Amino acid sequence: MTATFAALRKSRRVSQLELSLRAGVSQRHLSCIETGRARAGRETLIALLDALGASLEERNQALLAAGYAPAHGERPLDAPEMAPVRAALAQLIHANGAAPALVLDGEYNVVMANAGLARLLVLLGLPAQELLAGPLNLLRAFFAPGGLRSLCVDEAWLCNEMWGRASREAEHLPRLRALLDELRPTLTAWAAPQAASLLPVLAFRLRAADGRVLSFFSTITSFGTPLDITLASLKVEHLFPSDEVTREALATGLGSGRSTALRAAG
Fold first, then answer.
1. pTM exceeds 0.85, yes or no
2. Mean pLDDT by 10 residues, the chain (266 residues)
3. What per-residue confidence (pLDDT) applies to 213?
4. Between 20 and 30 A from 200 (CA), which of 41, 67, 132, 216?
5. Greatest Cα-to-Cα distance within the chain, rounded to the nearest angstrom
6. Cβ-proximal residues to 114 (8 Å cutoff; 6+ apart), any chain
7. List of residues 6+ apart from 141 with CB closer than 8 A
8. Residue 49 class from Cβ within 10 Å (0-12 exposed, 13-18 middle, 19+ buried)?
């Protein structure tokens, strides 16, 4: 447990003194916990994890390393008891008509998508049916050489924004951190014009197969106070058209609007 917890504290750039003040635990006792000279009780450990703002997955890992039962479940999205969650997600991605929308898990696997996203893929000249048959990992598809990023008008800027966003999320998600570590050596360098922004809305432009430039802004919705690891990692991204050309392109020939569920990529 000691290595697991100490690594978590250091990843947050929090000193032992600061954490002891936050959690109401003496610095000496905290030091003994981290060096293995003392064993933290379950309530003390949870208080320390609360003070660090640990994710549900990190909490479970720390509790297991200390010999305690995990505090949070992790049920797959296709489990029977998750049917209400799937229904809620379907409502969210269909709430805006033709606007492309998708549901991502913590590692950026696309687990649900609407007909608007399929329409967008077709406009970009991509095999929508094949891609949405799953599994599809957005980061792998975007950052692969010749991947989706090559369709971006402002490629370097959007690469910088997406990598920055994923890197911030990876601070709390060990499996996403592992994916970024895997992708990093294979990345083609891009010249980032500025540091990634912290804005919740991302504006970008894509090149359609017929030469039109499609303009979007995206927003992300997540579950507020989930107690399940799967729910905590899910996010719904809507791509809203930001000009009339894009709105008309998406509206033309749009299908029934039924959602597509995808098998999560490993």
1. no
2. 73 88 89 86 87 83 83 81 85 79 93 91 90 88 88 90 89 86 81 54 91 93 72 88 92 53 43
3. 96
4. 132
5. 67
6. 93, 94, 100, 101, 102, 257, 258, 259, 260
7. 131, 147, 148
8. buried
Place of tokens 């008309």: 248
Strand partners, 203: 217
What pLDDT is stored for residue 94 in this prediction?
A: 83
The predicted pLDDT at position 76 comes to: 80
**Cα separation of 175 and 224, whole Å?**
21
Bridge partner list, 218: 202, 239
Helix (H, G, I), strand (E, B) or coil at 238: strand
175 vs 187: CA distance, rounded Å: 19
Residue 37 and residue 39: Cα distance in Å, rounded?
7
Alpha-carbon span 67 to 221, nearest angstrom: 35
- In CATH, what is the architecture of 2-65? Orthogonal Bundle (1.10)
Cα distances (angstroms) measured from residue 13 to each of 17, 199, 254: 12, 23, 49
Q: Pick from 155, 157, 137, 134: which is nearest to 146 by CA?
A: 155
Residues in a beta bridge with 112 = 103, 261
- pLDDT on residue 255: 42
Q: At what angle do helices 27-35 and 16-23 cross, to 10 degrees?
A: 120
Kindly list the domain boundaries of the chain, sorted by start residue. Answer: 2-65, 80-261
CB atoms within 10 A of CB 126: 17
How far separated are the first and last CA of the chain, in Å rounded? 27
Using an 8 Å Cβ cutoff, are 71 and 46 in contact? yes
Please name which of 180, 150, 170, 166 lies closest in space to residue 237, comparing C-alpha atoms. Answer: 166
Structure tokens at 167: 């890197």
